[in-house]
Write a structure and sequence with these properties.
The complex is a heterotrimer of chains A (370), B (282) and C (336). With 370 residues, chain A is α/β, with parallel strands linked by helices. Chain B has 282 residues and is mainly alpha-helical. Chain B has a domain of 165 residues: MetI-like fold (Orthogonal Bundle). Chain B starts with a helix and ends in a 5-residue tail after the last helix. Classes of the chains: A alpha/beta (370), B mainly alpha (282), C mainly alpha (336).
Chain lengths: 370, 282, 336
């Protein structure tokens, strides 16, 4: 008898839960279903885009879903037209851009990659140059107390330990940014490894999945070194190095130094509907850049100039989409700093405005925003 | 010189105690990681459990508050759809393989079934993406399809093995009474094998409830409650994965643990109810 | 003259009797068989579609790399030299998948057997119920959580306590050499073992429970000790247990998330179990969502999936051959 009662109670509980959820679902769904937009792509800007989507929902009732599946995934889904907008850290390669004809590339935010490390007992930050970093990650320099590295850091006593190198196991825009920088700074790196989202790393290194994977590895393993996005380093309080830039300054990555780098690099950029492959994965700095942090990059949103290419698109959705993108370019930028992202400079805002004004649906311009 | 009966018996007894102790040791070794993982999930996740967490919309990464309501709903829906595909195909194929093992089709089917069980979940996800998402967009249906495919091999195998283990005396007694083969199967054999079949089904559900990769490529994920079967939807494994990839460790990781706890509870709940409903005695 | 017992009442017409006996019930049988057959054919269709899709999408890579794909050791989708073409070869992760799965079975199988026997034979029904319950709970834990637990709990534990002991005791064995930081093939195998234990245990336990008590009583009546009485169960359930192992192996070969977080993801042929390595499934999972170009990259990844499929085929053929050689079938019930 006691078992029977338990069965009845639990069955009622289960049915109750199902009914409860269905009821809640019916209550929650309004008589007019809200407009839903979907975007997918790079994981780096995901926290920022999701924050934007939440604020935009409060503002307009339009629901925007953004899922971080990777920059390449963003390009693939955008090309396959399964999303309303894609997102990628590196700009599309020429071949990719040609495969998705009619794409507008819109830089929406700026991030940076830092070289993080774990050196117990060392309290001052490490100084690094691009070429030394390349040597470390290529395993040409294997000990922390290597003479060149020590000479660069006279204030520190580096330990006599092996450097444990960790990198990304998954293809990633972060790797693309980092290796582009290394390729420009070290001809050894350029000929051996090159720059891409996925490198053929040395056998004596370890790969971890995602920025958190690398960050956790550094936290759990002394004398290790790796590369992660700035936001991860700041949020997990991991030490990261000062990187020498084209002015010889050892720049510490921060919202200010990254913004400086962005302003410096925004001088020559193509229009939104042109090929951005030449822009490169990171802001290559040259003398005159002040304290700009040398490993910074844009992160882009991708959208089609003619929106009827996307199945299921309607004029209403097109207007919602363009409003969303306009809002991202302008008002949304103020949310960036709190989440460790850098706002786009005015030059980029103008480029985006021109792109957005050119978006059409069935040949008719969608929005003009005076 | 032969050992005396008594000595030989003593040796056998010692061996018996020894082997049994090994088995209990295995039991202990098997349970230690479980307890460790459960402890970690419970300790880290229990603080998250409240009504708000269970019913609110998913907050953006880095923002505290919000909940996993849409994810719970999404998981329930997608498991339901997956079961619609996985259980009938699995159970009936399993019966076929067990009842007609000599047929060539049975052999090949069983073989293909095993191969299917070895496929990584990401490949199934890619498959579902190519087949469905490219044409009709992100949908719970595609997700259910992918997970359903993953459920089939487990259920088929478990059903097949459970039916095979039903003593032939039982089947033959029924046949001798004049009950036809197909009625025997439905009325006698399957109910006798019920326990194993149910275990297979529950194992399959437990397995697919926690899969991330196929869902990433079929339902994409969302922060909102679903309003149609043909749009991106949230699900618990996706929420767990996304939260665990966030840089905002102090805010999002507890949510990942909380969601894991909810997922485990969900499966536990299902387990208890099904077992009690099918009258598994203590 | 013998009494003929009939299921029909005496005055039931002869023709109708024949009709029912011949047509009615038998067509019920064939209808049922056809219905079951149709359900089974669905498996064929699904697998067929899967294989077809995989093959079609990997054609580009197959044409470009041929058999070199299987024993190539370089994976370079974007070589440093922009004029060089990408190279793809999957020998290292193939080895990684094989070895980690092997370790998983070697460790997981005995433990599962021990647990299943302990629960079904040596403990009370109540402990059996709760014990099995706990084990099945392990199956519900998402792989991501296994991975996180692996990083934060398992690896420090192994690195601190177990691996040093192994290295000290077995230092002469070639595959235990090398400095170790915990992220390696062995750890991958261990975490896989933990993940497949629930599957093998649950199914085995059900099989053991289904063995009729008459068998147990018979062998005890013959004077067997408790352990020896399990011989019957182990024999009786052998094919079912092998089926469970195949399922567990399936999970091991295809498992992605948890393994990729602890195996070190290093694309090179390992010479020691304490070296970091890679698996086929991890390779696909790590790179698929990012592989937008060149086109042969995506194709190579799908071909990796195809390799996994073929690996599964080979493993299953081997397993079935083993079963064939150790059992004799009699009307669907294995006897020995």
């Amino acid at each position: 008898m006691k078992e029977r009662t338990i069965i009845y109670i639990l069955t009622i509980a289960l049915i109750g839960t199902i009914i409860g959820f269905s009821a809640g679902f019916f209550i929650v769904s309004q008589p007019t279903t809200p407009i839903r937009l979907s975007g997918a792509g790079a994981t780096f800007p995901a926290p920022l885009y999701q924050k934007w989507s939440s604020e935009f929902d409060d503002l307009t009732g339009i629901q925007v879903d953004y899922e971080g599946i990777g920059s390449g995934g963003g390009i693939t889904q955008h090309t396959a037209k399964t999303v309303d907008f894609g997102a990628s850290d590196p700009p599309m390669k020429t071949s990719e851009w040609e495969a998705a004809t009619g794409t507008l590339q819109l830089p929406m935010t700026i991030g940076s990659v830092v070289v993080a490390y774990s050196l117990p007992g060392i309290s001052l930050p490490l100084n690094l140059t691009g070429s030394i970093t390349a040597d470390i990650f290529a395993r040409k320099m294997t000990k922390w107390n290597n003479a060149t590295l020590q000479a660069l850091n006279p204030a520190l006593t580096l330990p006599n330990q092996d450097i444990a190198v960790v990198h990304r196991s998954d293809s990633s825009g972060t790797t693309a940014v980092f290796t582009s920088f290394l390729s420009d700074e070290s001809s050894m790196w350029n000929t051996t490894y090159g720059a891409s989202k996925n490198i053929n790393w040395d056998a004596n290194t370890v790969g971890q999945k995602g920025n958190p994977g690398v960050a956790q590895y550094i936290q759990q393993n002394d004398y290790s070194i790796g590369y992660i996005e700035l936001s991860y380093a700041q949020e997990s309080s991991i030490d990261y190095a000062l990187m020498q830039n084209a002015d010889g300054v050892f720049s510490l990555a921060s919202l200010a130094t990254v913004a400086n780098a962005a302003s410096f690099a925004s001088l020559t950029l193509p229009a939104g509907d042109e090929d951005w492959a030449s822009v490169g994965s990171y802001f290559a700095l040259s003398p005159g850049c002040g304290d700009g942090y040398p490993i910074s990059s844009f992160s882009y949103m991708l959208v089609y100039q003619e929106l009827n290419l996307i199945p299921g698109m309607t004029l209403i959705k097109a207007q919602a989409l363009t409003n969303w993108l306009w809002w991202c370019t302008h008002q949304a930028q103020s949310y960036a700093a709190a989440l460790h992202y850098v706002e786009i400079p005015p030059a980029v805002i103008s480029i985006n405005e021109a792109s957005l004004r050119s978006i059409t649906f069935d040949g008719v311009v969608v929005n003009t925003w005076q | 010189m032969k050992l005396s009966e008594v000595t030989w018996f003593k040796i056998r007894k010692i061996r018996s105690y020894f082997m049994i102790s090994l088995c209990f040791l295995a039991l202990l070794i098997g349970l230690i990681p479980l307890i460790s993982i459960l402890a970690e999930v419970v300790i880290n996740g229990i603080s998250q459990l409240n009504i708000g967490f269970l019913t609110q919309e998913i907050a953006p990464l880095g923002q505290s508050g919000g909940g996993i309501g849409p994810a719970i709903m999404g998981t329930l829906f997608v498991i339901f759809l997956a079961s619609l595909i996985g259980i009938p195909i699995g159970v009936f194929s399993g019966i076929f393989l067990a009842e007609y093992p000599e047929s060539r089709m049975a052999f090949t089917a069983g073989f293909l079934n095993d191969v299917l069980s070895n496929m990584p979940s990401i490949v199934i996800g890619i498959f579902a993406w190519i087949l469905i998402v490219v044409y009709t967009g992100w949908s719970v249906i595609a997700g259910g399809f992918a997970l359903g495919i993953m459920m089939i091999p487990l259920i088929t195998r478990a059903t097949e093995e459970s039916i095979k283990i039903v003593p032939s005396t039982v089947k033959e007694a029924s046949l001798a009474l004049g009950i036809t083969h197909w009625r025997t199967t439905l009325i006698v054999t399957v109910p006798t094998a019920k326990r194993g079949i149910i275990t297979g089904i529950l194992l399959a559900i437990a397995r697919v409830a926690g899969e991330t990769a196929p869902l990433l490529l079929t339902i994409l994920g969302s922060r909102f409650f679903l309003t149609s079967l043909f749009e991106p939807t949230a699900a618990l494994p996706l929420t767990i994965f996304n939260s665990s990839q966030s840089p905002f460790i102090s805010i999002d990781w507890p949510k990942a643990w909380g969601a894991s706890l909810v997922l485990i509870f969900l499966v536990l709940f299902l387990n208890i109810i099904v077992r009690l409903l099918t009258k598994e005695k203590f | 003259m013998e009494e003929q017992v009939s299921v029909f009442p005496e005055d039931y017409p002869e023709k109708k009797r024949k009709k029912i006996i011949l047509k009615g019930e038998i067509s019920g049988d064939s209808f049922f068989k056809s219905f079951l057959g149709i359900m089974t054919i669905l498996i064929f269709i699904i697998m067929g579609l899967l294989i077809l899709t995989l093959v079609l999408r990997s054609l580009l890579s197959i044409e470009t790399y041929g058999f070199g794909f299987l024993w190539g050791t370089m994976w370079n989708p974007t070589p440093a030299d922009p004029n060089a073409s990408p190279e793809f070869g999957v020998l290292p992760p193939l080895l990684g998948t094989l070895v980690t799965s092997l370790i998983a079975i070697l460790i997981g199988f005995p433990i599962s057997m021990g647990i299943a026997l302990a629960l079904s034979e040596f403990t009370s029904k109540r402990i059996n119920f709760w014990g099995s319950f706990l084990v099945e709970l392990l199956a519900a834990i998402p792989s991501v959580i296994y991975g996180l637990w692996g990083i934060f709990t398992l690896i420090p534990f192994l690195r601190g306590f177990i691996y040093p002991v192994i290295q000290n005791v077995f230092f002469f064995l070639p595959f235990f050499q090398g400095t170790d930081n915990g992220y390696n093939v062995f750890t991958g195998g261990i975490i896989l073992a933990i993940m497949i234990i629930p599957t093998i245990t649950a199914i085995s336990r059900d099989i053991f429970a289904a063995v009729p008590d008459s068998q147990r009583e018979a062998i005890i009546a013959l004077g067997a000790t408790k352990w020896e009485s399990t011989k019957v169960i182990r024999r009786y359930g052998r094919s079912g247990v092998i089926g469970a192992v195949i399922l567990g192996l399936g999970r091991a070969i295809g498992e992605t998330m948890a393994v990729t977080m602890v195996i070190g993801n290093s694309f090179h042929l390992f010479d020691s179990l304490f070296d970091p390595s890679y698996t086929l499934a991890s390779l696909i999972a790590n790179e698929f969502t990012e592989a937008s170009s060149p086109e042969v990259y995506l194709s190579a990844l799908i071909e990796t999936g195809l390799v996994l499929l073929i690996l599964a085929l080979v493993v299953n053929i081997t397993a079935r051959l083993i079963i064939r050689h150790t059992t004799r079938k009699f009307r669907g019930v294995e006897t020995f």
